Amino acid sequence: MIKNNLIKRDKLEYGDFQTPLGLARKICGWLKKQEIKPQVLVEPTCGYGNFIIAALETFPSIQYVYGIEIYKQYIAETEKKLEPFVKTQNITVKIIQDDVFHFRFNDIAKKHQPESILVLGNPPWVTNSELSAKESDNLPTKLNLKRVAGIEAITGKGNFDIGESVTFSMLKTFSESNGYFAFLVKNIVIKNVIQSQQQFVFPISGLQQIDIDAKKEFNANVDAGLFFARFNKTPAINCCVSKSFDQPVNRSFGWTNRKFVADIERYKKSAGLDGDSPEIWRQGLKHDCTAVMELTTTENGYKNNLNKTQTLNIEPDLIYPLLKSSDLKDQVITKTNKNVIVTQTAVGQNTDYLATDFPLTFDYLDKHREFFDKRKSVIYKNKPSFSIFGIGDYSFKPFKVAISGLYKQTQFSLVLPIDNKPVMLDDTCYFLGFDLLEEATCVMYSLNQPEIQNLLHSIVFWNAKRVITKDILMRLNYVPILRRIEINKMLEYAERQQLTLSKNIFIKNPSSIFGRQHQELLWQ
Ligand SMILES: C[S@@+](CC[C@H](N)C(=O)[O-])C[C@H]1O[C@@H](n2cnc3c(N)ncnc32)[C@H](O)[C@@H]1O
What we know:
Elements: H1 21-33, E1 40-43, H2 50-58, E2 64-69, H3 72-88, E3 92-97, H4 105-111, E4 116-121, H5 128-133, H6 142-155, H7 162-174, E5 178-186, H8 187-196, E6 205-212, H9 214-218, E7 224-230, E8 238-242, E9 249-256, E10 259-261, H10 264-270, E11 282-283, H11 290-293, E12 294-298, E13 301-304, E14 319-323, E15 332-333, E16 338-341, H12 353-357, H13 359-367, H14 369-373, E17 399-404, E18 413-415, E19 424-425, E20 429-434, H15 437-447, H16 450-459, H17 470-473, H18 479-484, H19 487-496, H20 503-508, H21 516-522
Helix pairs in contact: 1-2, 2-3, 6-7, 7-8, 10-16
The structure holds S-adenosylmethionine.
C-alpha cells in the first residue's frame, strides 16, 4: 500500500534530494559522449522528473519512458513537465506511483528485451540505520534484503544504503538486457558493487565513476559520483575513476590478483608487500563512558568532564595515559593530558577486586554507575560492572606503534610510556605493542617507509567512515622492509627524534631486539 499521498513528509526519510536540472543535463551530455543510443528510459525513483527531461532533450532515440516514484505529488508534476515532449515526440510515457521495492521492473525488462534500455537516476541516499532511527518502513522487501545480506557478508557492514539496495536490484533486473546503467550514488555504493563482482558477477562492463561535488549539488557531506556501466557484457571487476565530467580517468580500482585495491597502477609498485602482517594489529580501548572513565591531568590532580572544578580523590594505580586518533599527529609521542581508568586487564575479567584493592576508585565508579547502565551496546550486557573492551596483555606493552583509524593520513606514530606507565589508545586507533624501544622503533620506521606508505595509499578507500581498518593493517607485510633497514640511517633518524636507542645492541646482537614473532620471520 502506498502511503505517500501526504502533503508534507520527511524529506530525509525518502532521501528526497532532487537532482538539479543542470547536473542532470551535464550527466546526459557526458552519456552522449559515450556514444550510447537508448530506446527505453527507466527512472526507478524519478522524483519530479529532472533526469527524464534531460534524457529526452539529449536522446531523440528514446521511444518509451518509465518513471516510478513513491510520492504522489511528484507524479502529477512530472507528467505536466513531460507534456511538451509527448506532444512533439513520438514517445510513450508512463509515470507510475509505486514503491521501487515492489514495482515489477522485470516486466519492463521482458517487454523490451531486444531494445536498448537506459536505467538512469538518483536513488535515495539514506541508510537503513537512519531509517530505523526515524522508525521508517521505507526499506527493501525481503527479496532485496537477501541480496543486501550477501553484500553485507562481503563488505562486513550492517549499515547499508537504500540507494545501494536499489542499485543492486536494478543491476539484477536489467544487467542481462541490452543497454546502460547511469546512477548517481555515494562512492561507497560503487565500491561495494565492484567488490561484489567477484561473487555476484553481473554481466556489466565499461565501469566508470565520475566524481561530483555533492556538497555543491546536494549540500551533502559525502563522496558521491555517477556510476556508469554497459549491460550484457563480459563481467568487469575494475572501475575507472575521473575527478569530474571533463577530466580523463585518473585511477582505477577493483580486483587484481584476487586482492581488492583502491588504485591499481599505484598498487603494482608495492604488491609484493600485500600479504600478512607479522604481528596482530589491535584496536584500542572501548568503554563508551567518557564522562566517568576519561580524566584530564591538571595542576591539582585528575578531573572528569562532569565536574571541571573538583579534582578526584582516587588511587592513581588504574589511571593510564590515553591517546585518541586526533593525538596521533607526530611520529614520536611522549605527552598527553588525557587519561583513562582501566578496570580490567582482560576482557570479561571479574571486577569485584576493585572494592577491596582500590576502594576510592570503586566508590567513584559506583557513584556514577548510572552512566555505565546507560551504555547501549549489547557487548556490555551481562558483563562484570564497569567492563571495558579492547583490553589484553598487548594493552600494557610499554612501547606502541599506532595509527589513527579515522583520519585521512597514513603516518605511524611511536608511543612511549608516560610517567613510567604504558599509554592506552582509544578505539579509534590501532596499534602493535612491544617490550623494547628498539623493536618498536624499527617497526615504526619500516611502516613509514615509502613502499609501505605506497601500499597503504593504494588499498585504502578514503571515502569509508573508518579509513584505516584492522583488515587493511593485517595486509601490511613489513618484514622485507625490516630486513633491509640500513641500521646507520635508522639510528640517525632515531637521534633526530631524540630517541635513546642502544647502539651496541644493533651492532653486536641485532636479533636480540626482536620478539619471537619477528625473529622467526626475519631469520628464517
Ligand atoms: C534523491 S531523490 C532523486 C529523484 C530523482 N531521481 C532525481 O534525480 O531528481 C530520490 C527520490 O526517491 C523517491 N523515493 C524514496 N523512496 C522511494 C521508494 N521506496 N520507492 C519509490 N521512490 C522512492 C523520493 O520520493 C525521491 O523523489
